[in-house]
Amino acid sequence: MNKPLLEMLPALRALATPQRTKIMDWLLDPRAHFPPQIDGDLVDDGVCVGAITEKTGLSQPTVTTHMKTLEAAGLVTSQKIKNWVFYKADRSALADLGKAFGSAANRQN
């Protein structure tokens, strides 16, 4: 493995569960997957953890753990609005992940 791919290991581990991968997919197109929110814009501010919890059918502590894993891996950002945490995909981190694999695939042996 080359170094850029090794640097992506936390992100790859974070995406290694179906639930987190599904959540990331939803966050990449939040208007298609979540209803409008009272507080915070789905795209500009992110999706409320309560909406993610409702959509997944998982418990709020489980969703919070998933979201903290994605955030620690650098795949999402969070902000607090009132009493809720809102998450949105970090598109530049995902682009970097894609570039790392593209570079590795294009390397000559």
Automatic annotation (TrEMBL):
Keywords linked to the UniProt accession: DNA-binding, Transcription, Transcription regulation
Name of this protein: Helix-turn-helix domain-containing protein
Pfam family, one: HTH_5
Chain ranges passing through the membrane: none
GO MF terms, alphabetically ordered: DNA binding; DNA-binding transcription factor activity
Coiled coil: none
Boundaries of every HTH arsR-type domain copy: 1-109
